[in-house]
Amino acid sequence: MGLDFKLDQAIRKVPDFPKPGILYFDITSILTNPEAFRFCVKELERLCLEYQADAIAAVESRGFIFAAPLALELSLPLILIRKKGKLPGKTVSQAYSLEYGKAEIEIHEADIPRGKRIIVIDDLIATGGTVGAACRLLSLCGAIPAAVIGVIGLPFLNYKQALGSIPVKTIIEYASEEPELDKSGQTG
pTM score, two decimals? Predict the structure, then answer.
């Protein structure tokens, strides 16, 4: 397995899901392919090393899948960012807008290393709404969002607008919802 691994071939594309006109980039096909999953964890590790993080924060739920082995490989604490009402104990929350409504995420206040650099991990970075809220939540708790890193990036949905100056890195990017015409490939 090397840098020539064709991740695009391991990503299932589902047209008209969750609604007509949307192309869904499904990471479950990566998880059923150990070579693809291993490649993703190693590439995420490579991307994370650039930011000298003190911890990894994972966005519920698919971000957990990639962040857990990554945090273990990097010997870093793993902080879970969950949907509202899923964590016991004292939490801090952040509301944010979605294209179809509003949502809220929470974090255990005691889990945040104040003044430390934290990388936010998710499976797919699209509009930046969820990871942007995660970064605001970390900042609210006194941490420094060092970067947002994901497996798949959809820059045509303007995630950089939602994330401002926070660096965004993904293993693979798609420039449109027509991946058969778009061979933007690996990024880093």
Answer: 0.92
